[in-house]
Design brief:
This protein is of the alpha+beta class. It has helices at residues 11-16, 36-56, 117-133, 181-184, and strands spanning 21-24, 27-30, 60-62, 68-69, 79-80, 84-87, 105-109, 137-142, 147-152, 155-162, 167-169, 178-180. It is globular, with a radius of gyration of 17 Å.
């Protein structure tokens, strides 16, 4: 007896999905909403990135739920929706659509269930996908320990870690941008 293969979902299906999700391996994967604190942290980062982009006149910053479409990743991932991001361009001709590239800087803010061995593996796999797609820097924002780990495509296994009393950066994705760790976690 033959079994029916599930129909492969597309980016067009993702556009119509009624919540935050990513497209991985032809399947829409819903993403859990986050709590108050992780969302506030992501917002502060987005706001700082937006100020940076406005001052420089280069690129755009995005809040949670921005869609980036990508192709050709070995994992089958076809989209990203980081918690905060910065993209230096190019931009789609239709501003209602996803950006057809990886973000220049992707920020993943850990929520309540983003800890433990399984979560660490998932986060590492997603970072690898970001870098394979062309992302230059990925921030892993640890809300419990109040640390920011900055991973770079040029050395993805050796993050720089920033804590209280320090200024975090995202070189070379956002040249010259700095933000106080204390402000992010206040």
């Amino acid at each position: 007896m033959a079994t029916a293969q599930p129909q492969r979902e597309t980016l067009d299906d993702l556009y119509r999905f009624p919540g935050k999700a990513e497209l991985i391996g032809g399947r829409i994967v819903p993403l859990m909403a986050t709590g108050r604190r992780p969302n506030r942290i992501a917002f502060r980062i987005s706001r700082s990135l937006d100020d940076y982009a406005q001052q420089r006149g280069v690129g755009e910053a995005y809040t949670d739920n921005m869609g980036f479409s990508v192709t050709g990743l070995p994992s089958g991932r076809e989209s990203f929706s980081p918690d905060a991001s910065y993209h230096s361009g190019p931009f789609p001709t239709d501003p209602m659509r996803f950006i057809e590239a990886a973000p220049t800087l992707a920020v993943e803010v850990r929520g309540e269930y983003d800890y433990g061995d399984s979560a660490e593996g998932d986060l590492a796999a997603k970072r690898a996908d970001y870098f394979a797609a062309g992302t230059v820097v990925v921030w892993d924002v640890d809300t419990l320990h109040e640390l920011i780990r900055v991973y770079r495509a040029t050395d993805p296994d050796s993050p720089t870690t920033y804590g209280h009393g320090q200024l975090a950066e995202a070189e070379p994705a956002a040249p010259g941008w700095r933000v106080a760790v204390d402000r992010i976690f206040s």
